[in-house]
Amino acid sequence: MLDSRFKTMHNPISTISGTPINSEQSIYLNGFFNGLQQTGMRFADAAPDPALSDVSNENSPEDYCKEEQLKYRTDLNKTFSIVQNVSEQRCEPNVEETFLMKWHGLFYLAPKQDGFMCRLRIPGGYIRSFQIRELAALSKELTSGYIQITTRANFQLRVIPLEHASSVLQRIQSVGLHSKGSGADNIRNITASPAAGIDPTELIDVRPFCLKLAQRIINTDEFYNLPRKFNIAFDGGGAIGVVEDTNDIGVRAVKVNETFKGCIPGVYFLMALGGVTGHKTFASDSGVLIPPDQLLEIIQSIVRIFIENGNRALRKKARLKYLLKDWGIDRFLNAVEEDLN
After folding, report:
1. Which of 266, 194, 267, 192 minimizes the C-alpha distance to 233?
2. Looking at residue 277, what is its pLDDT?
3. Phi, psi torsion values for 152, nearest 5 degrees
4. What's the pLDDT score for residue 210?
5. Are the beta carbons of 224 and 186 closer than 8 angstroms?
6. Long-range pairs for 294-298 at CB < 8 Å and ≥24 separation?
7. Rounded Cα–Cα distance for residues 183 and 152 (Å)
């Protein structure tokens, strides 16, 4: 008897283009198309499902949302002049200036507080003692006098008077720290296992990956001006996790032994994609094992695909999870492979 899974919901297929087919071919085709109906599956290269039109990717500037249109007509590398003008004139930034100043890590707090908050970039939470001393000094001299530690192992300086905004950024940069891209639609502070490098149970020290990627981001214009903010995390597989599945890209080290067929034994990274805790979504396993020497190139390729195809028309649907929902994981990974040649 034919398995009930292969019973079709339509009239059985008996001919193709008017040509009769045998019973075996009929069973196969009916089962195949019934499976597609039940799972909602579609070919990766097929036209987008009309039902997903609300998250389609509009990449024509006239269709951009107002924030994207502002970014489109602004040279974001020249917006530091806004910071300088606000400091020199001691004038409150307007709505557009407030948005653009986030590119430099400055968040205008009015009306709740009179001044700015500055968010830094501390990749992996790794910081030197002389840098902490300078942050303490400038916080006492130029701000409210206290520093916040964030959930992404980062620092925030709060209540910076208008006239000190420019000076705070200069002091931060003088000790090798940065705030560029820590706000707005950029790759946020990269997180890593908090005990990386000193955890005896870790499979791999992820500090080099974290710091190298952060260095590439801070020095590459290509990795700014994303459709929406983007989070990346590295987990070395040790005793203390980094909660990588709350990120757009989360990678976790795993050990592959001799019994795993089709893969040379050793340490690899499992990659999860599309985590957005604010949208009550954890990242999903991509099903991909990545050798450590290919990890950073693959992450950068994923970011490029998101930059090129993310939804710039509707900010509420602009995170990576919505592109994955629209395309499906297979189509997305195929695009990454094409980008990597």
Report:
1. 192
2. 84
3. -100, 30
4. 98
5. yes
6. 295/209, 295/251, 295/269, 296/209, 296/212, 296/213, 296/216, 297/340, 298/271, 298/336, 298/340
7. 13
Q: Is 266 left (phi over 0), alpha (psi -120 to 50) or beta?
A: left
C-alpha 26/C-alpha 32 separation (Å) is: 10
For residue 173, give the nearest of 137, 134, 206, 145 by alpha carbon: 134
CA distances from 127 to 31, 134, 144, 156, 184 (A): 59, 11, 22, 14, 23
The Cα-based distances of 303 to 2, 187, 242, 289, 335 in angstroms read 46, 9, 20, 18, 11
13 pLDDT more than 60: no
Nearest to 126 by CA among 209, 18, 201: 209
Task: Write out pLDDT tens, residues 65-123.
Answer: 999 999 999 999 889 999 999 999 999 999 999 999 999 999 999 998 889 999 999 99
Q: Which candidate, 266, 272, 200, places its Cα nearest to that of 243?
A: 272
Residue type, 294: Q
The better pLDDT of the pair 58, 180 is held by 180
Q: How far is CA 29 from the centre of its chain?
A: 40
Residue by residue, DSSP assigns 20-53 as: E--HHHHHHHHHHHHHHHHHT---TTSPPPGGGG
Instruction: For residue 295, give the DSSP letter.
Output: H
Return the structure tokens found at 167: 């000076």
228's tokens: 């929406």
Q: Which amino acid is at 298?
A: I
Residues present in the chain in total: 341
CB 230 within 8 A of CB 300: no
State whether residue 84 is helix, strand or coil: helix
| Tokens describing residue 83 | 């910071």
Nearest to 123 by CA among 175, 77, 178, 169: 178
C-beta separation of 21 from 13 below 8 A: yes
Classified as helix, coil or strand, 117 is strand
For residues 283 and 246, is the Cβ–Cβ distance under 8 A?
yes
Angle (nearest 5°) at CA 260 between 258 and 263? 90
Q: How far apart are CA 155 and CA 122, in angstroms?
A: 7
